[in-house]
Amino acid sequence: MNPNFDTIGKGFVDTYYTLFDTNRSQLQPLYRDHSMLTFEGQQFQGAIAITQKLVALPFQAVKHVLTTVDCQPIPNNGVLVFVVGQLKSDDDHPHGFSQTFVLFPEDEAATKYYVMNDIFRLALHHG
Known about the structure:
There is one protein chain. By secondary structure, the protein is of the alpha+beta class. It has one domain (4-122): Nuclear Transport Factor 2, Chain: A (Roll). The chain is built from 2 helices and 6 strands. It has helices at residues 5-22, 47-55, and strands spanning 31-39, 42-45, 62-74, 78-89, 95-105, 113-123. It has a 6-stranded mixed sheet, covered by helices on one side. Its main location: cytoplasm.
């Protein structure tokens, strides 16, 4: 188990949402060919397909405001990251969201991580 799981997870989250909010196409290096994204129930596999989905989202300006970031160590020096926050896009009202990442190390030294799994859900109220 990686003793630095909290630092790794929170550092990743800072990088991920900064890139997402400024230039979504720059997220591609964070994924691999075997990475999986489930976005609102739709599944995408591979860095290219995932990035195409994220870039095609129907808003220009976007800002993630994070409420909580919880991290846990998982086997093989991996890190489980669960994020809750608000998504503010264009002039729309903010929407609550949750996102879960499974991060795996790129190499034996576990100095660089990639996203193996990514699950995103808006917290929409149906009524």
